[in-house]
Amino acid sequence: MEDPSVQEQPSPEHRPTYVRPPGLEFAMGMGIFGLVFMVFFVAQTAVLMRELVRRMPEHFSSGFDLGALSDPLVLPEVQKLSMNGDVVASTAFWSGLVASVLLLFLVFLWRGKAGARSLIGIRSAPPRLYLIWIGVFALLVLGLEALAWAFPQFRTEFMEEVLGSTTNTAMLVLGVGILAPVFEELLLRGLLLGSLRFLVDRHVAVAISAGAFTLMHLQYEPLVMLMILPMGVVLGYARVNSGSIFVPILLHLLNNVISIALPTTY
Length: 266
What we know:
Layout: H1 22-55, H2 75-81, H3 85-120, H4 127-150, H5 158-164, H6 169-196, H7 202-215, H8 222-242, H9 246-261
């Protein structure tokens, strides 16, 4: 016989579940976004500075020193390294790898397995959706190519310069062609867009993530960046309409790999 003095405990299915307010979920997501982006930037800077020390040992005899960056002989070398294919590949590989692992770890820690998969969009999509969005993205790219052909001010030789200075094309494909798209999609169409959806509708979330995507490509001229904006919009709608982060990852990956294989306008 049960002791009547013992307080009755609710059954597991009737226990109240604490649900964080949408504003708090958004704030937590943006906090992770800021931390991951900072680590991404620090990783890129560390790889660049390591290469700078290796190439200019006379200016960094006792290791890296921020004061040396004010040397008029050092700054041109920094600018040159930012366009060097081997350095671009290395920075893209290491920063993308470190930041992607950190992002996934923090989001799974925050949301749990099911919540993280839902927020980022880690789920499969029907093959027809991949084909549909590849077609949409291909039409957009052809339109942008036509625009760049008609108006030279929209052209850039960034990828041609990178390819011309690389000694390891495989590393360039791995870093710029694969890891960079994976990280950018996890960050922007995964974490950022997913966090925004706690407060705004899909259209606003797509617009904001597309703007952030454009600002992440400051290596290009302003007019070329305007061509990147519609790509961000299409990638965003590919994510929300398919429900899968793998669709925009594939589109972005194909774009970057083709840009390496056939460097033309952007």
